[in-house]
Amino acid sequence: MLKLPATMTAVGFEAPGAPDVLRPETLPVPVPGPGQVLVRVAFAGVNRPDVVQRQGFYPAPPGASPIPGLEIAGTVAALGEGVTSLVPGQQVCALVSGGGYAQYCLARADHCLPVPESLPLDQAAALPETLFTVWHNVFERGWACEGETLLVHGGTSGIGSMAIMLGKLFGLTVIVTCGGPDKCAAALRIGADHAIDYKASDFVEEVKAITGGKGVEIVLDMVAGDYVARNMKCLAMDGRHVTIAVQGGVKAQINMAQVMTRRLTLTGSTLRARSDSFKALLTAEILQTVWPLVAQGKLRPIMDQAFALEEAAAAHTRMEAGTHIGKIVLAVA
């Protein structure tokens, strides 16, 4: 076992608010329980759910750390009872339910992925949240198949960029929407087949033109609200609409006759509150199906900017401004 300090620096908040409520604090280093490992964090990913949690709208689930941070990369520092799959000193990245904005973080051993030698730790920390989310929602819930077409809103976000890259690796045609010509150009560089500037044109009409009137098989929706009815107009027969965020509002008005006559499927999910056993199964599937592409260097996250842990407020400010392209991370160690 590595020698551990008694305390660590973490970034949290006392009350919800603007980014400046985030502040460093000194906390005890957590102790891993059965099935857990303690990770000395090198980098932590910054994600939209962290922002929503800080704003007071996405509290940590029961038993999870109240410290923000849903993905980390670093070195295994200590093992909990029963852990035999990992060893101290091993580099891992992990999906966690909270606690990532800290020098040390608990993770379940079966939610960890080994970091290949060719993968820098900052990039490793930028993978789990978007990779798990996109894989589950596009390929498991959305039943994406080779040769189909996927529409993704926010093509240059962390989720959007991952959806582009995974989609192309698994044989999909990917259409994205972006706000402005610069972001559209960036999405095309990432690998999107088509990028629609939603500020300059109607994405419904653009999708119709691109697909020759057929529509897309899958929509990955992060907006909800009044976008849902518009998204449904983009779907082909037997199309699947998968919602993973409600940035445009929680309520949508839809024509159920369209759902029936065009045999549409509307689904969605959130990842954080899912059971440990579900996440373990998802980790195992990703390890088998996607992680070889990471090891081969064929899948790498699009990186935006790294901030020091103590600059978490600035990282949140950048994310809320919406100008970032790809993933924002915190450099912890």
Automatic annotation (TrEMBL):
CDD domains: p53_inducible_oxidoreductase. SMART domains: PKS_ER (SM00829). Pfam families: ADH_N, ADH_zinc_N_2. Residues 17-330 form the Enoyl reductase (ER) domain. Keywords: NADP, Oxidoreductase. The keyword Oxidoreductase applies. NCBIfam families: quinone_pig3. This is NAD(P)H-quinone oxidoreductase.
